[in-house]
């Protein structure tokens, strides 16, 4: 039996800590371009109550997204104890490529994955670099693609990275700027043969491209005379919240049923985190489908201290738990883990993983 197994993991969390007081001097505008006259303290307090975000990390100006993606990749390769020349595919989930820290210009060529391969010094011409542009669910989709490549016999080792520098893609006059942050996480997904099934055992992806396509887009600043980038993250927060609560729980249930795993056998849910209120609500609705209370330690959280790090949220969280650096959370042999994400485009995806270390 061919299994797709996470052999090693790594992360890069920027050193620059940005707490909520950083935004006290910001001028925020509403969707109609009208300045919000409420005091900064009131805006920030409400924001923290909803999201639970206290601080986030921003990358230093000396680094680009491809740099921090490389840092996480190097750690994952070392952790996996493999020769980098045996990597068959490098899949980099990202959304904006490299963003210049001054001009905010987006650079997508060469591709992020090609830059990472170059930075790693991989000489193997048959190591193929792929960029995964899939919104926040990009890293999960990268794992699903890597699993399919391994199962199809086309790969032995797949390096899957999630990396974004969203602090350079936000409108400083939009309150949602306080949500986004920077970071990178990576894993090596490897082929293992055994008599039992473990690693990735089931997966599911749903893509909604009707009116949902416009819930998360790029657009000009809410402040009409802003002279920065004219391509900033524009999010319809209420629409995203309602979409996620309406669709994610059933999608997770479908994946768990495909894996033939009873709900009481699930050990952890590693869920992408845009804001804590939404995550708590999605998990509560998921367990309600089984008429079962939510276990106390089922949903590890990083959003409070790291913010919404997009595609890197889940691999960073996985690495923290794997290294026993996220509170009391840890993985045990034969644990069933559910990885899931929802985000731009709009996409929902998930996979069930049987842990074997």
TrEMBL record:
Keywords: Acyltransferase, Transferase. It comes from the Bacteria. The keyword RNA-binding does not apply. Coiled coil: none annotated. The keyword Cell membrane does not apply. InterPro entries: ACP_syn_III_C, ACP_syn_III_N, Thiolase-like. GO terms for molecular function: 3-oxoacyl-[acyl-carrier-protein] synthase activity; beta-ketoacyl-acyl-carrier-protein synthase III activity. It holds the Pfam family ACP_syn_III. Its EC number is 2.3.1.180. Residues 130-204 form the Beta-ketoacyl-[acyl-carrier-protein] synthase III N-terminal domain. GO terms for biological process: fatty acid biosynthetic process; secondary metabolite biosynthetic process. Residues 256-355 form the Beta-ketoacyl-[acyl-carrier-protein] synthase III C-terminal domain. PANTHER family: 3-OXOACYL-[ACYL-CARRIER-PROTEIN] SYNTHASE 3, BETA-KETOACYL-[ACYL-CARRIER-PROTEIN] SYNTHASE III. This is Beta-ketoacyl-acyl-carrier-protein synthase III. It comes from Weeksella virosa (strain ATCC 43766 / DSM 16922 / JCM 21250 / CCUG 30538 / CDC 9751 / IAM 14551 / NBRC 16016 / NCTC 11634 / CL345/78).
């Amino acid at each position: 039996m061919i299994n797709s197994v996470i052999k090693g993991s790594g992360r890069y969390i920027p050193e620059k800590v940005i707490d909520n007081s950083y935004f006290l001097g910001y001028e925020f505008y509403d969707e109609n371009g009208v300045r919000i006259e409420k005091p900064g303290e009131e805006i920030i307090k409400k924001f923290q109550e909803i999201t639970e975000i206290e601080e986030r990390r921003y990358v230093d100006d000396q680094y680009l997204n491809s740099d921090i993606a490389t840092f996480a990749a190097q750690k994952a390769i070392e952790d996996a104890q493999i020769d980098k020349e045996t990597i068959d595919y490098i899949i980099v989930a990202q959304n904006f490529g490299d963003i210049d820290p001054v001009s905010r210009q987006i650079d997508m060529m060469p591709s992020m994955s090609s830059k990472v391969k170059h930075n790693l010094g991989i000489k193997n011409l048959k190591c193929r670099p792929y960029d995964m542009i899939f919104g926040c669910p990009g890293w999960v989709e990268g794992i699903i693609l890597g699993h399919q490549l391994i199962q199809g016999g086309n790969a032995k080792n797949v390096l899957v990275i999630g990396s974004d520098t969203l602090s350079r893609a936000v409108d400083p006059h939009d309150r949602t700027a306080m949500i986004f942050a920077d970071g990178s996480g990576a894993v090596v997904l490897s082929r293992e043969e055994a008599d039992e099934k473990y690693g990735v055992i089931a997966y599911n992806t749903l893509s909604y491209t009707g009116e949902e396509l416009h819930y998360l887009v790029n657009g000009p600043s809410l402040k009409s005379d802003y002279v920065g980038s004219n391509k900033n993250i524009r999010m319809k927060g209420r629409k995203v919240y309602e979409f996620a609560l309406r669709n994610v729980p059933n999608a997770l249930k479908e994946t768990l049923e495909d894996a033939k795993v009873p709900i009481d056998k699930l050990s952890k849910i590693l869920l992408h985190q845009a804001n804590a209120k939404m995550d708590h609500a999605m998990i509560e609705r998921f367990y309600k489908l089984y008429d079962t209370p939510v276990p106390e330690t089922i949903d590890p959280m990083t959003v409070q201290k790291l913010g919404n790090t997009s595609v890197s949220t889940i691999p960073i969280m996985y690495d923290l738990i794997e290294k026993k650096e996220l509170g009391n959370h840890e993985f045990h042999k034969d644990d069933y883990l559910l990885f899931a994400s929802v985000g731009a485009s709009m996409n929902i995806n998930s996979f069930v993983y049987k842990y074997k270390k």
